[in-house]
Amino acid sequence: MVNSIKPGSLPDYSSAAAAGKTSADTASTSTSSTGGPLAGDTDRVELTPQAQAITEASQQTGDVSVNSSKVQALQQQIASGTYQVNAQSIAAKLSQFDSSLGGG
């Protein structure tokens, strides 16, 4: 899947890397003398499958409701210094998340 970005907003680094040019060289060859994109230039960004999965997950969680009383209780615990971090739970959830993205 390829997500497009507004043409002219990014220099085309892929052709520059193949030609051995630096980002400064690319910036000067990707734009016209007025600073705009050259005719026919297009910019593209390709997301890895992992980045696509993160994007999809963040879009799906946009409708999640917030438990205000739980948030307030956690804020009070943090402010008073009584909040206990459960490192094992965090590690397990990070590992589960990594596995869902196809990681190790």
Structural description of this entry:
The protein is mostly helical. It has a domain at about 1-45. It is about 50% helix and about 5% strand. Strands 1-2 form a two-stranded antiparallel ribbon.
Quick overview:
By secondary structure, the protein is mainly α.
What is the element layout, followed by pairings?
Blueprint: E1 2-4, H1 13-19, H2 23-30, E2 44-46, H3 49-60, H4 68-80, H5 87-100
Antiparallel strand pairs: 1-2
List key phrases describing it:
single chain; mainly alpha; 104 residues; 5 helices
Estimate the mean pLDDT confidence.
Answer: 74
Which residues form runs of ≥5 with pLDDT under 50?
A: 22-29
* Spatial strand arrangement across the major sheet: 1-2
One letter per element, helices H and strands E, the order comes to: EHHEHHH
What general outline do the C-alpha atoms trace?
Answer: elongated
Report the span from N to C terminus. 23 Å
Number of helices: 5
Radius of gyration: 22 Å
- Secondary-structure-derived class: mainly alpha
Helical coverage, percent range: 40-55%
Strand content: 5-15%
The total count of strands amounts to 2
Tell me the major beta sheet. Answer: 2 strands, antiparallel
